[in-house]
Amino acid sequence: MSILMLLTMAVELGADRVAVTAGDEQLTYGELLDRSRALGAQLREQGADNAALLDLNTAAFPVALFGAAAAGVPLAPLNYRLADERLTEAVGRLSPVAVYQGPGVSSRVAVGAADALLPTTALLGAPPAGTELPDDLADPESPAVLLFTSGTTGTPKIAILRHRHLFSYVTSTVEFGHAGPEEAIMVSVPNYHIAGISSVLGSVFAGRRIVQLPSFSPEAWVDTAAREQVTHAMVVPTMLARILDVLEERGETLPALRHLSYGGGRMPVPVVERAVGMLPHVDLVNAYGLTETSSTVTILGPQDHRDAIASSDPVVRARLGSVGRPVPSIELEIRDHDGRVLGPGEIGEVFVRGEQVAGEYTSHTAVADDGWYATRDQGHVDTDGFLFLRGRADDIIVRGGENISPEEVEDVLVSHPAVAAAAVVGVPDEEWGERVEAVIVLERGAADPSAELTGWVRERLRSTRVPSAVHLRDELPFNETGKLLRRVVREELSRVGVPS
Amino acid sequence: MKVGKRLKSTVCSTNVVVVRAADVALSCGGAPVVEDLAGEPSGDVAPGLDGGTLLGKRYLHEASGLEVMCVQAGAGSLSVDGVVLEVKAAKSLPASD
Q1: Quick check: A19 and A82 in contact, CB under 8 A?
Q2: Cβ–Cβ of B55/A9 closer than 8 Å?
Q3: Which residue among A148, A328, A342, A439 is buried most deeply as judged by most CB within 10 Å?
Q4: Cβ contacts (< 8 Å) between A140 and chain B: which residues?
Q5: E strand intervals along chain B
Q6: Cα angle at A382 between A479 and A435, to 5 degrees?
Q7: 3-state SS, residue A472
Q8: Cβ separation B4–A299 shorter than 8 A
Q9: Cα(A455)–Cα(A412) distance, integer angstroms
Q10: Quick check: is A297 in a domain?
Q11: pLDDT average, residue stretch B30-48
Q12: Residues A370, A331 contacting (CB under 8 angstroms)
C-alpha cells in the first residue's frame, strides 16, 4: 500500500479525465500515472535514496510525488525561496538524491558526485516506448514525503511522513471519487507545505481536477479562479485578506466558487466575517493541522460557520474563532503540565492520536509509546468539543508565575477600530520575569490610539494582561504561509532601549 | 493482519487494504484472501458470496471491528465466518485542504 494506490484507483474512474491543470500544461489521470511510473523507473535506475523537487506549483509536482512512491523512495519538496547555501545544505542531507528543478526557479544548488540535478521537463514528457514501468514498490512503512521544518532555531528538522500516514489521512477524510465532473480545486499553498501535498493527494482520490497556481499573488489567484471556473480552494490567513481586497476592487464575486477552506495559521475573525459578507454563496471551512499529523486534525465546517454567524448565544457565536472539532479518525485531549487531562474551558497543551499522526523526524520520534503526540499548541475545548487555539506553547508569556496567552490580548487590541493588526509578546523583566508588550499596525488613516489602548484592554481583560508598552509599526513579521512570527517581535523588543 | 496490509482474493479480482485490523479470517467469494499478490484468480465465486466489491468502498465486520478498503473491485463478496461484510456509510467531511 502506498500513496500511488490513490492514483491507480482514481485512474479507474476514467483515465481520460483531466487530473491537473497548470497554466498551459495539462495531464489526464492516465498521463499522470504513466509519467509517475516512468519517473519511478528512472529513479530506480539512478539508485538515489531520495528524490527532491525545487519548483513552483506546476504539473511536475504530482508527477514527482507519485513517481517517487513508484520507486519506493521519499520525495522532499524544497523551499525555493531559501538562499542557495541553505538549499545546498538541504540537498547534502538528502544525498544520494535526484533533484528536479523547475524552469521558474532560479536557485543555484550545488549537488555532490553521488547526486543528480535534472530539469522538471524530464518529468512531463510522455515516457518513451518500451519503458519498463514498475508496479507499486513502496512498503506502507517506508517514507513517502520528507519535509524540512521552518527551523526557527538552529538546523531545520526533517519531518517524515510514511505511506501509511498519508494513505490513512486521505482515505479517512475523503470519500473516493465523490467529486462532480465540474469540480476544480486551486492549490495556491506551496508544494513544500503539508497542505500543498495533502491537497493534491486528497483531490486525486476524490477525482477533483487540480489547478496549480504556480506562485501566489492575490491578482493571479482571482484571475485563475475566474478563468478555470474553480469550485474549491484552500488559503492561508495572509492570502485571504488580500484576495478579498482584489475582489472588492474589481467587483468580482467568483460565482463558480463554492467551497473555501482556510488554515495554516490564525485567521482574524473580522476577515472571516468579511469573507462571509462578500462571498455568501461560498461554504467556509476552517482546518487545523500540522506537518507532523499529515495535515488536518480538526474542522470547523460550513454549518458551524453559519450557526456561529446567526447565533445570539455568545458560546456559539465565539465558534467563528474556533478551529472546530476533531475529524472522526482523530482523538484529541487537552492536558496540563503534569499530563492530567483537562475539562472544557481549561487551557492546556493539545494532544492528538490517530493513524495519520506521524510525529517523527529523521533525528527522533516525538510520539509517545501509547500513540499520543504533543502538538506544542495551547488551547481549550468548549462544552461541545470545539477547539480554540491559544498559540504555541513557546509563545506563552509567563508574568509573575501567571500564564498569559498572547492571542487573548491581540484579539482585544484588534477589536479597537484604529488597530489593523497586533502582536503581543513577553519581554524579559527584572520584577516579573516577563512583562507584556504589544506591537500594533494602524488601520489606514487612523489616528494613533496608543494613549487609550491600555484602558481599552483593562476594560476587557484582567489587569495582568494590560501591555506595559505599545509600539507602532508599519507591518508585522509573518512567514510566507501566514504565521505571525512573535519570536522576531520578541527579539526586537528584548533589545534595550527600543523606542515605542 | 496489519493495518496497511494489502490482501487479494483468489477467486476474483478483488484487492483490499486493511484499515482496522482484527484477529479474524477474511474471505472473498467464499475463499480465504491471501497476502501473495502475484498470480491470477482461479476457481469459482461461491454462490451467495457473489455480490461483488466496489472500488473505494470501506467494508466493516461489526463483530470484530475489522475494516478494509477495496482498492480493486471484483465479483466476490467479503465475509468473515460466512457473515458478509457491510459497506460502511460514507462520511461527508468537507474538504479541508
Answers
A1: no
A2: yes
A3: A439
A4: 3-5
A5: 6-8, 15-20, 26-28, 31-32, 58-61, 66-72, 78-80, 83-84, 86-87
A6: 50
A7: strand
A8: no
A9: 11
A10: yes
A11: 92
A12: no
pLDDT confidence of residue A479: 78
pLDDT, one tens digit per residue, over A376-426 is: 999 999 999 999 998 887 888 888 878 888 988 998 999 999 999 999 999
Asked if the structure places residue A500 within a domain, the reply is: no
Q: Do A187 and A201 fall into the same domain?
A: yes
Which pLDDT belongs to residue A237? 84
Give the nearest chain A residue to B89 (CA atoms): A175
- Domain stops at, among A393, A424, A439: A393
Q: How many CB pairs under 8 A join A and B?
A: 86
Residue A134 CB coordination number (10 Å) = 17
Question: A168, B19: Cβ pair inside 8 Å?
Answer: yes
A156 with A203, same domain: the answer is yes
Mutate: best of A12, A174, A176, partner B, most B CBs <10 A: A176
Considering the domain architecture, whether residues A98 and A239 belong to the same structural domain is answered as: yes
Domain for residue A360, yes or no? yes
Residue A292 lies in domain = 4-306
Q: What's the structural domain count of chain A?
A: 3
CATH of the domain at A218: 3.40.50.12780
Do A103 and A80 reside in the same domain of the chain?
yes
pTM (2 d.p.): 0.89
The alpha-carbon gap from A420 to the nearest alpha carbon of chain B, in Å, equals 27
Residue A270, pLDDT score? 86
User: Does any domain span residue A480?
Assistant: yes
Residue range B34-41: mean pLDDT, rounded: 88
Sign of CA dihedral A273, A279, A282, A285: negative
